[in-house]
Every structure is written in C-alpha cells, then in structure tokens.
Fold:
Amino acid sequence: MNQIVPIPKVEIIPSSAPFSEAQRSWLNGFFAGLLTTDGAVPLSPEPGAAAMQGPAGDGDDGEAPWHDQTLAIAERMKLAEGRPLRRRMMAAMAQQDCGQCGYNCSDYSDAIAGRSEARLNLCVPGGKETARMLKSLYEELDKARPAASSAAVTPAVAVTTTISEPGRSRDNPVPATFLSRRLLNKTGSEKETWHIDFDLSGCGLDYVVGDSFGIFAKNDLGLVDQIIALLGASHTADVRGKTLREVLIEDVSLSPAPDSLFELFSYLTGGAEREKARALAQGEDPDGDAATLDVMGVLQKFPKVRPHPEAFVEALEPLQPRLYSISSSHNATPGKLSLTVDCVRYVIGKRKRLGLASTFLAERINPGDEVRVYVQKAHAFALPKDSRTPIIMIGPGTGVAPFRAFLLDRKATGATGKNWLFFGHQRSDCDFFYRDELNAMKTSGLLTRLSLAWSRDGEKKFYVQDRMREVGRELWSWLAEGANVYICGDAKRMAKDVERALVDIVAQFGARSTDEAIAFVGDLKKKGRFQQDVY
Ligand SMILES: Cc1cc2nc3c(=O)[nH]c(=O)nc-3n(C[C@H](O)[C@H](O)[C@H](O)COP(=O)(O)OP(=O)(O)OC[C@H]3O[C@@H](n4cnc5c(N)ncnc54)[C@H](O)[C@@H]3O)c2cc1C
Ligand SMILES: NC(=O)c1ccc[n+]([C@@H]2O[C@H](COP(=O)([O-])OP(=O)(O)OC[C@H]3O[C@@H](n4cnc5c(N)ncnc54)[C@H](OP(=O)(O)O)[C@@H]3O)[C@@H](O)[C@H]2O)c1
Structure:
C-alpha cells in the first residue's frame, strides 16, 4: 500500500488577491494539486501519532454499531457521535468492507486518521457523501494537529513510494491479456451478463478462490469526444504531457461529476450560475438533478462556462479501478481467470449512460488486448481450511461468481465436503447462468444440492431466501453439522434479507427465540462460519 501524506498547505494566491478566504483556500489547494506529484511521500510520524494514538490508545471500545451497510450515513454518524475521529471516519464509509479502496472500512479510516493515506475519495459505494464527510472530519484532524507541524508550507519533495508486490494492489497493477467474452443470458432476458476470460500467464499472477480482480478500465471514446467538443478544445491539446483525448480516456473519471468541478465552474462564472455551481459543490441540489450529473452533464448544464482543458482535467477525479469476484479456480485452470460481469447501461433524459468497467469488458476490448489489473485479496471470504466442511453458498445473479470458483476449486483439489448452492435470477429460461455446468456438477455429485429461485417466472417475486425458508429444516441440519454459510451479491437489500431468513430458520428449526437466533448467527460470523462478499 502506498504511504501518502496530505498535500501541505501551499500559499500561492496572495492574501491581497480579490478572493474570499474560502475561494483563496480552494484555489491554493487546487494549484497545490498541480504542483505536487501523485506519488507517495513519507509520513512524518508526529502529526499522525498526535491525532491517533492507535486502536488501544484512544479509549475507544472497538465496537462499531454503525458497521451495517443498510444504514444511511446520517444514522451511522449519529451512532459514532462522541467517538475518536478515526472511528467517526469509519462510520462515514459505506460499511461494505468491499475492498475497493484497497482496505476494509476500519483500516481505511485508521490510515486516514494516521495520515498514511491522504486520498479521501476511495470509498466507491459511499460516493460523494462519504468523501464530503471525510473531508470535513479531516479538517478536524488538521485542527488537532500541533501548531509547529501545521506551519510547514514547503511542497513535498522527498518522494518515496512504497510499492506493493506487482499485481497485488490497486497501486501497482500489471498487464493481463483479455482472452474472450461470452454472453450468459439467452434471448428474452432483461440482463446482459458476460463470462469474461483473462490469461495471466504473461504477468504471472495467481489467486485463490474468494479473491477479487481489480480492473482499470478506459472511458468510452464517443463520450470523450463529445466532452472535448463541448469544451471547444482540440483533442490533441497537451495536458500533463498527453493529449487531452488520452487523458480523458485513461486517467480521469467522467461520472459522477465531482464537487471540485462545480467549484471550478463557480469561480469561472457569476450571478445565478455561480450560486448554482457553488450550491452543487456543497452537496446541495438546486435543480433536482444533482444525482444524475456526470461530467458531460455539467458542461451541458453550464453552457457558458468553458474552463481551460488543463484546469478542467485537474478538477476531475482520477479514474478508479473496479473489482469483480473471480469466478474461476487457479487450481483448476492455472494461468487463467474468469469473471461474471453484469453490464451497466441506463438512460437519463435522452442520453444513454454506460457503466465504465462493465461496458469496457463487454465491448471496448478485444481478444489479445492488455488490461491493467490486480488481485485484491479477499477480506475473510474463503473456503474452509478443512476441506471436509460442508458449505452453503447463497448467490443470486452475479453473486454466483465466487461460488462457481469454490466448486471448481473443490473439484480440482478433491475436497470431500458437501456443497449446497442457492442460485436465483429473473427467469429460468434465459438467466440460468452456467446451467449445463451446474447441472453436470449436480449429476456428478460435486454439487450436493442446487436450489433455484426465479424472481420473474411467476406472478409473485420469489427470491433465494424464499427457497431457503422452504428447505429450512435441511438447511438447519447442515448448519448443525458445522456447515459454513456464504452470501455474495447485492449489499443493500439481498444480503440483509438473506441473513434475516437465516435467523428465522435458526429460530424455527433450531428451537431458539429470535434473540437467541440472532446471537447464533452473530456467533457464526465471529467464528468465520458466515462470510459475505457483497457490493
Ligand atoms: C468485491 C466486489 C465484487 C464485485 N463483483 C462483481 C461481479 O462479480 N460481477 C459484477 O457484475 N459486478 C461486481 N461488482 C460490482 C462492480 O465492481 C462494479 O461496481 C459494477 O460492474 C459497475 O461498474 P461500472 O464501472 O460498469 O459502472 P459505473 O461506471 O461504476 O456505474 C455504476 C453507477 O451507475 C449508476 N447507475 C447504475 N444503474 C443506474 C440506473 N439504472 N439509473 C441511474 N443510475 C444508475 C449508479 O450510480 C452506479 O453506482 C463487485 C464489486 C465489488 C466491490
Ligand atoms: N447497489 C445496488 O442497489 C445494486 C443492487 C443489485 C445489483 N446491483 C448491480 O447490479 C449488477 C448485478 O446484477 P446481478 O446480475 O447480480 O442481478 P441483480 O440485479 O442483483 O438480481 C439478481 C436476482 O436477485 C433478485 N433480487 C432482487 N432483490 C432481492 C432481494 N432483496 N433478495 C434476494 N434477491 C433479490 C433479482 O430479482 P428482481 O430483479 O426480479 O427483483 C434477481 O432475480 C451489478 O452491477 C451490481 O453492482 C446494484
């Protein structure tokens, strides 16, 4: 993991310049960003140590009642009131422990509070709400900094980057070769889900089942060229030693529009437009469209404001990688890696929007192309050490991905534990991914049980947790035998609903009160027998 200190305060805009304090501070920060490298600089130990005395040293009890991905940020912050800053920083995060930031929520917040991580915008599921809250908590951290260290105004010079092993973190990706894609849905489906294959033999990466694969995608050329046209710039304009087109394709995020872009626009215009841009920069929603404004949407909304390409690019966020659960086993197919990717496409107004990485994998790369990738080690999501342990896997939709990997791995290693998969999707005839493969696993006995739930086949929705309830007695007997339970897929609703079903099953068939059943499931979690990979 890179060790990065925040950009020191740089006074570039003189105090006599005709700006308010807030404008001056923003512009100083903006130009400081231009002057410093993106690399990592060594952390001076004092400020971090002063602000964070370490997990055991600040009187916090270590409990995290806000660590629930279904709670809204306001509720989470309330639960964290009165806690040390690093704990409130954790509460600001989306609580999915999804690994997209390169940490889990607790470690990311400790790293920020300890000043070994300066990037406040890495929590993808938390989005702008989390980034804004972290920014404001970070200002508190600044205030807590001893006066002597805050006096340092010299830009960072000694740049030393702690490079992680190649291909093992988002900070050090390696090239992998894209091999092929295959559509998993059949005619009539409302979904577009791709089985994707990569060749890792060139980069030498390996992985274990349960790990995820990080992909650095590129933006769509059509979108980039429309943005350049709206900017009124040349696509060959030089920005950071590259052409504007290259930078917009490879380096910056074009969705959603960041606060810094609105801030830049607010300084380049006046009157009502300026007020509007300023309000948007502060997270307000003057026209009710804030949630859908991407970078192109901002250029369309403010047609009279046209920043210089360099300033425009500086106001954008770096392009973030995306994670995908690996759906293959390195033990079964060494040097190969598969993903199961649901393609994100939707329409806002009249414009088609493309999910960055899913459409990149679905249509913007060709066999033989190299993609920058890394393996993200799973945070407590793995097959049991004892290969005889039974496993229950619950993965609707693309949530089946890691379980395909688990099954292939158990087959390759000759694991004797029983395997039960709950899979579900919209329609049995067109959304049954890996149908032949799963049926063959069932026939061979590898898959002891395969329980299916089709949400749109009948008149009423029927989900995996409905199927679980139907077979609750058997499910309980697997649990009583010592089975591990795994959930993968949607974090917001599915994971919670499935957990609730599990609690009900434990209560009903394990003859427990609801409170006892909740405690039982909590204990499964503590013992590592109930693991989740949700996003
Ligand atoms: C650990 C982990 C494992 C994952 N595994 C998988 C996997 O196996 N398979 C898989 O497909 N995905 C998986 N994901 C999700 C994946 O990382 C991406 O988030 C997903 O593919 C979308 O990325 P994108 O770049 O295509 O879309 P983005 O460019 O990130 O766009 C997605 C955003 O578009 C917006 N959006 C989407 N639909 C709509 C709509 N209808 N209306 C309005 N706005 C909308 C939302 O703001 C959404 O956040 C995983 C995520 C994590 C963290
Ligand atoms: N963050 C979110 O809000 C969210 C939620 C889901 C998916 N996604 C994104 O969608 C893509 C993944 O899609 P996917 O292929 O995995 O399919 P999916 O859209 O997650 O749907 C898979 C199946 O789960 C069902 N389902 C919906 N709500 C459920 C619930 N509460 N409990 C149990 N099952 C439920 C769906 O039914 P119906 O559709 O018929 O209701 C469908 O049959 C990814 O890009 C992912 O990031 C995001």
User: Anything to note?
Assistant: DSSP finds 20 helices and 15 strands in the chain.
